[in-house]
Amino acid sequence: xxxxxxxxxxxxxxxxxxxxxxxxxxxxxxxxxxxxxxxxxxxxxxxxxxxxxxxxxxxxxxxxxxxxxxxxxxxxxxxxxxxxxxxxxxxxxxxxxxxxxxxxxxxxxxxxxxxxxxxxxxxxxxxxxxxxxxxxxxxxxxxxxxxxxxxxxxxxxxxxxxxxxxxxxxxxxxxxxxxxxxxxxxxxxxxxxxxxxxxxxxxxxxxxxxxxxxxxxxxxxxxxxxxxxxxxxxxxxxxxxxxxxxxxxxxxxxxxxxxxxxxxxxxxxxxxxxxxxxxxxxxxxxxxxxxxxxxxxxxxxxxxxxxxxxxxxxxxxxxxxxxxxxxxxxxxxxxxxxxxxxxxxxxxxxxxxxxxxxxxxxxxxxxxxxxxxxxxxxxxxxxxxxxxxxxxxxxxxxxxxxxxxxxxxxxxxxxxxxxxxxxxxxxxxxxxxxxxxxxxxxxxxxxxxxxxxxxxxxxxxxxxxxxxxxxxxxxxxxxxx
Length: 481
Description:
Layout: H1 3-18, E1 22-26, H2 38-51, E2 57-60, H3 76-83, E3 86-91, H4 96-119, E4 122-129, H5 131-134, H6 137-141, H7 150-164, E5 174-179, H8 180-184, H9 189-194, E6 197-201, H10 214-232, E7 236-241, H11 258-272, E8 278-280, H12 416-419, H13 449-454
Parallel strand pairs: 1-2, 1-8, 2-3, 3-4, 4-5, 5-6, 6-7
């Protein structure tokens, strides 16, 4: 091989290794709480690459297939193998010790069942999603479901590292995903130290206690990213959820519309795609029903015909004084017209598993005060750091144990239904609906109590989508698990 050829090859490899990840969040359930199966994931992954060749990665919220009572690995794995889609794996961490063991069992089973066809596609592993947010005063006030405290998350991360040692995933990087306000709270620093990277969920739309018009969206996002990077202490920060709704209720100055969703894409996505790892919320959340708010860039019909131009060509960032506001409800080009009711409660956060990130992102600046834990009573206590939940918000409305699982993590107020993973402790006897918090109350149910720990109740998140709460701008969007 001639030197020039060798150098060109090295340069090509270096460029490829330096390329940043681009993808969408995928929950384990659909917007009506029914579970995604392999064919659903394959269609989504194929469409993601069709709308833009760069979106070839998928973020998941749980390792367990929705509806499984035996901790069967998610069918997103064979779908990813078939579509050559890389995976940011997620293990739901708000189901207690038993729930984490179920997630780890499913991960180990996947390694054994699919081998390197699976492990070669793994770009990272996230242990938990917005668990710290959910135990914060803001998350508790938003009824976002069970979470996990810093010590538990550190323990879970250690368990996952031990579980993948001496396997093809032994070198996989491990992180945790949470709202930027959770990361900015110094009482959570032990989690940062335990991670190889940190994942940030941020939704200016939900920062309704601030000036959060579309013209301020990029600025609020950049502030959230800067705060997270400062807290990360030099570790890589991945943007794991962000987006702007195409339809839904207005949050202070934030108006959902396809025009504003495009403006946010252009101002936040386009400058960062290819530079930092970024998972958008979301590809589709309006099938079979449209949540409020709805963040999908395609409508009710899955196709490469997006609701707005995502090419990033001739992009002009709007000055804050001339941000488009549109009147609220957008009619999806694909026919997914979802006009919220006058009260703004259509598909309320607590009722829709696919709902976007929780709107619990309050604008109060996070403090170093320790966050309250789920067991510390859902008492008042002033919110020190109010974080932002994911769009899907907590799923389930019913009295069943909250499924703060992957199905419900949406922008703020993660919704378990989107994730399809139970957020309640494993010893909970109720599997059905999760009591969701901020935006996504999808009430998905599982076939058995063990399923609840591993798959069940958390239909609230669909793995991506903003939750309904509305306090802090950087809420994280949850995707269907």
